[in-house]
């Protein structure tokens, strides 16, 4: 028979997270995500095509981080600066100020890209990895498709003017989420407030991080600003506070000041109006299911991923979690067998369900014990 066990974790309300008609940010397009639950808390024309400008550099860093993770690149490796790269350090663009023939480490180039937003560093890194910036841009687009950025094409490594370098704030959010989730150690570069380039043949050059949120008491630790005359100001940002992370992306802010204040408003709104609830922790027992003819009467259960839900703070009523299985479950049971479902419901409507797995092995009783138990069941109905 079907067994239902309601977990006494909480009884809360859930409201459609898209119900944000009374809230708005002064940007052409924007999105806000709760990192752990993946819930979208706010969006405004999130699939509208944009020129991502220097937010492109997030993917430039990801390509390098991927290679480092695989062992195909090292932070201490050095690349020789070409004339192509040097030209961007003397053409009025944001630069690290590298010189032709300089041998610059991968780590310095990455910090020049992430902190100083150096377009010259982007070209030097791209050429060092792929031979040319054009080939590197192909790697960037392939990676974008791989991680689910369905409306993105990268045409260069820096994001400077190119009509075919396009994306959306939703795709930039997906890219930012991927960066933080897969490269937690490398992501720390994005929180650095300054970078000093110990350049060859001149005094060191110190530059501050262009992300204005790093200098506020907000908990911001990234990610990347952008500006193009045609797109105006943009920002991919993230805050981490009390174990909770939010990611915001906005583009089409009219001024640099608006980029800072409106991004702050969006992140603060998300922190103030929603709660993050952990329903289950990966590989941790969350309940038990009854067993038939086993050496144990119950088997511990678990799910193989962390499960979080984001709940509007002001209207909490009926979020329920239940263990559902057809049982008692006959032994033998092997660890990791799928034995039921963990269901999350709102007002008796299932909103999510996950495979419920056996946390342990349960062996079958011997023949004599099984016979006695079967007789007891026939007489007393006791399993």
What does this structure look like?
The radius of gyration is 26 Å and the shape is elongated. The protein has helices spanning 57-70, 83-87, 106-114, 119-130, 133-146, 169-182, 256-273, 367-380; strands at residues 2-6, 29-34, 40-44, 78-80, 103-105, 194-197, 205-208, 220-228, 232-241, 244-253, 274-280, 287-292, 298-302, 307-312, 319-326, 329-330, 338-346, 349-358. The strands form five sheets. A seven-stranded mixed sheet has the order 1-15-17-18-13-12-16, with no helix packed on it. It is an alpha+beta fold and 383 residues long. The protein has two domains: 2-13 and 283-380, D-Ala-D-Ala carboxypeptidase, C-terminal domain (Peptidoglycan synthesis regulatory factor (PBP3), Domain 2), CATH 2.60.410.10; 46-213, 3-Layer(aba) Sandwich (Beta-lactamase). Helix 3 (106-114) crosses helix 4 and helix 4 packs across helix 5.
């Amino acid at each position: 028979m079907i067994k239902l066990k309601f977990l006494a974790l909480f009884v809360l309300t859930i409201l459609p997270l898209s119900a944000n008609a009374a809230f708005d940010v002064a940007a052409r397009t924007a999105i806000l995500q709760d990192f752990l639950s993946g819930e979208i808390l706010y969006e405004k024309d999130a699939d509208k095509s944009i020129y991502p400008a220097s937010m492109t550099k997030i993917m430039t860093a990801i390509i390098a981080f991927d290679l480092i993770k695989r062992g195909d690149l090292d932070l201490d490796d050095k690349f020789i600066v070409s004339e192509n790269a040097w030209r961007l350090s003397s053409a009025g663009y944001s630069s690290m100020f590298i010189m032709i023939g300089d041998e610059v480490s991968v780590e310095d180039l990455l910090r020049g890209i992430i902190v100083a937003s150096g377009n010259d560093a982007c070209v030097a890194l791209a050429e060092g990895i792929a031979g040319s910036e054009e080939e590197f841009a192909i790697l960037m687009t392939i990676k974008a498709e791989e991680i689910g950025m369905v409306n993105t094409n990268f045409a260069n490594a820096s994001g400077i003017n190119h009509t075919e370098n396009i994306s959306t704030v939703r795709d930039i959010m997906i890219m930012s989420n991927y960066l933080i989730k897969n490269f937690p150690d490398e992501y720390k570069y994005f929180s650095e407030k300054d970078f000093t380039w110990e350049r060859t043949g001149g005094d060191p050059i110190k530059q501050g991080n262009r992300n204005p949120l790093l200098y506020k008491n907000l908990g911001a630790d990234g990610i990347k600003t952008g500006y193009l005359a045609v797109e105006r100001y943009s920002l991919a940002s993230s805050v981490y506070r009390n174990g909770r992370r939010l990611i915001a992306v906005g583009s089409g802010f009219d001024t640099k000041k608006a980029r800072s204040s409106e991004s702050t408003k969006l992140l603060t709104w998300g922190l103030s109006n929603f709660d993050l609830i952990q329903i289950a922790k990966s590989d941790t027992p969350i309940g038990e299911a009854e067993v038939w003819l086993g050496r144990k009467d119950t088997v511990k259960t678990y799910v193989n991923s962390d499960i979080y839900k984001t709940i509007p703070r002001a209207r909490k009523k009926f979020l329920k979690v239940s263990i559902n299985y057809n049982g008692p479950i006959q032994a033998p049971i092997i660890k990791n067998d799928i034995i039921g479902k963990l269901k999350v419901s709102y007002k008796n409507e299932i909103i999510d369900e996950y495979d419920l797995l056996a946390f342990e092995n349960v062996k079958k009783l011997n023949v004599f014990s099984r016979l006695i138990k079967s007789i007891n069941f026939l007489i007393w109905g006791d399993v």
